[in-house]
Amino acid sequence: MRAVRLEATGKLVMREVDKPAPGPGELLVRIEACGICGTDRHLFLGEFPSHPPVTLGHEFAGIIEAVGPDITGFEPGMRVTGDPNIACGCCAECHNGRVNLCRNLQAIGIHRDGGFADYVILPLKQAFALPSGLDPLHGAFCEPLACCLHGVDLANIRNGASVIVLGGGVTGLLTVQLARLAGATRVLLVTRNADKRALAETLGATASFDPSRTDAVTGITDDGGLLPGGADIVFECAGVAETMRQAPKLARRGGTAIILGVMPQGAKVEIEPFDLLFREVNLVNSFLNPFTHQRAADLIASGAIKVEPLISRRIPLEQAPEAIANPALGGEIRTLVTPNT
Ligand code: NAP
Ligand code: ZN
């Protein structure tokens, strides 16, 4: 079979490898779609700890081709999505139910071979069924949605709440939709690209704001702004210093800023403890997808969360190395690699 292998930092190639056979407790899945995420590029560039040689790709779904011995509940022909983050189940954090903080976390597509390939090996406990009638590309959004769901779970959004989402990529556009489903009545998306702002408004954002023209904090929170005094909940979904600084300032008194974006290790951002204290702003971090993958699959399967408009391009496997190595094109949201169609 073919696989896109990270062989060393900066060396990503498609090559023939042996097709794996599922062992006990494992499924062999034929990939239908696998999303290219910013993390894949960080792994390629050596900006994120990588474990070459390994096949990249952690946002995947496909059809079961074969099952290992003693598997029940899954059989060849079923469509599945994979939760790539494998917790050990044995460390102190796992025993506390904090599986996303597992000390021995292994991720499919980072530590072990992933979904930029014709086939992937998926451990049974990481597999979640999808309907046979689902669009074959849509299952690739379960992993990013599951991460956003954790953030929205942490936010405890109440009916009628006001929400600001910073960053109009996949994370931001999924979070806008989840915030509306959770009962927020005002959801403001802040992103520079006009097409993304327009798209957000078709997906449930009640307004959008261009931070490249006017300072977002004053433009939104001042008297006469879109949300004077700030929002109940702010989601940072851009992962850049500017939005990290803005997130707590955009939260209202007693409000909450949820950080989803990833900054480079060692990067520093200024915060103002005085402001956080006297306005009692909660600063909350949301990492990965603990126990949210099933709900993400259900939200996509039911159509409650729209993912079709987030697909910018679909490319064959041989184009994946170049697409991963280069920054996303302007206005692009998600590129899906579709090895088998
Ligand atoms: P993405 O596609 O790069 O989206 C981020 C968007 O932020 C960009 O599309 C950009 O759109 C916007 N942006 C950049 N600078 C901005 C600014 N100054 N103000 C407002 N918007 C700005 O990335 P993604 O896949 O959605 O992921 C977003 C972040 O979440 C990344 O850091 C990613 O690593 C992280 N993430 C975290 C988790 C987790 O578990 N915590 C899970 C998945 C992803 P414009 O050009 O329109 O401004
Ligand atoms: Zn563990």
**How many helices does DSSP assign?**
10
The CATH fourth-level homologous superfamily of the largest domain: Medium-chain alcohol dehydrogenases, catalytic domain
The biggest sheet amounts to: 7 strands, mixed
**Please, what is the average pLDDT?**
97
Per DSSP E runs of 2 or more residues, the count of β-strands stands at 18
Q: Helix content range of the residues, please? A: 10-25%
What integer value in Å does the Rg equal? 20 Å
Helix vs. strand class = alpha/beta
What is the N-to-C succession of helices and strands? EEEHEEEEHEEEHEHEHEHEHEHEHEHE
Q: What would the CATH topology of the largest domain be?
A: Quinone Oxidoreductase, Chain A, domain 1
CATH structural class of the largest domain: Alpha Beta
Unreliable parts: none
Query: Are any ligands bound, and if so which?
Result: NADP nicotinamide-adenine-dinucleotide phosphate, zinc ion
How far the N terminus sits from the C terminus, by CA atoms, comes to 14 Å
Which architecture of the largest domain does the CATH hierarchy give at level 2?
Answer: Alpha-Beta Complex
> How many separate structural domains?
2
Shape: globular
Tell me what portion of residues adopts beta-strand conformation. 25-35%
